Amino acid sequence: MPVTQSDIDLAHALADAAGAVIRPYFRQPHGLELKEDRSPVTLADREAEAAMRRLIEAERSGDGIHGEEYGIREGVTGRQWVLDPIDGTRSFTAGRAIFGTLIALVEDGWPVLGIIDQPVQRERWIGVAGRPTLFNGVPVRTRSCAALEGATVATTSPHLFAEGDVPHFMALVAAVSGGAPRQGPIYGGDCYNYGLLASGHLDIVAESGLQLYDFAALVPVVEGAGGRMCDWDGDPLTASSIGHVLAIGDPARTDDVLEAIRSVPHSHDAHGPGSH
């Protein structure tokens, strides 16, 4: 079923609820802990997701929920709300306002609505399938990029990549920089990078090892602004994607980006592009 105004209103309400929880913890004691996978989690993460889940359970009792902190609740409608209360917890705990709350509506495995919300700076991107992306209510567009060399590439950190993925990313960096080390990538940013790309400030974002709650919301935002979201093989991102993510502001550069990533031999690591 198509995304309705009621869906959009609920998504905004979810972002509002999460932001109200998160802001008082920013640059304040936040109860940092490490999860079993050694990733950080705070009271803000847990309480923000709990607040969003309560709203969904009240307003959309038949829909599924997939959240980073509290897991999956199966639904009966073929629709699932995918939540990452704080994408970029490391940035949040460091007092850097480049983290974000991610909210997606996924229908039959396809992301059809997404919000990237930066609650401290009160910046919000919303993308809906078939509609232009809005930034604080105003339409935004990605920028054109005439050639891969000289494009601006961002990633949170290649240290988060599977080892076999790093050479492929560095091949992209080499193609963009033209051998000039000072033209290297922008590091840090988490989901905020994708909002910046949608608003025309970055050209490419590349990530590896993302979960559905890390990327589902990004797809409608970037594509509604005129960009392209795909995996490292050029395939669309769905609930079954394995976490290799590319955002390309100018779709005309897609083949160039994929060619650069494939320009090194495939590793035997199951995580390498083309292996899944």
Automatic annotation (TrEMBL):
Pfam short name (any one): Inositol_P
InterPro entries documented for this protein: Inositol_monoP_metal-BS, Inositol_monoP_superfamily, Inositol_monophosphatase-like
Record-annotated membrane-spanning stretches: none
Cofactors: Mg(2+)
Sorted UniProt keywords: Hydrolase, Magnesium, Metal-binding
Domain of life: Bacteria
Signal sequence annotation: none
Alphabetized PROSITE patterns for the sequence: IMP_1 (PS00629)
Family to which the UniProt record says this protein belongs: Belongs to the inositol monophosphatase superfamily.
Protein name according to UniProt: Histidinol phosphate phosphatase
Organism in which the protein naturally occurs: Sphingomonas mollis
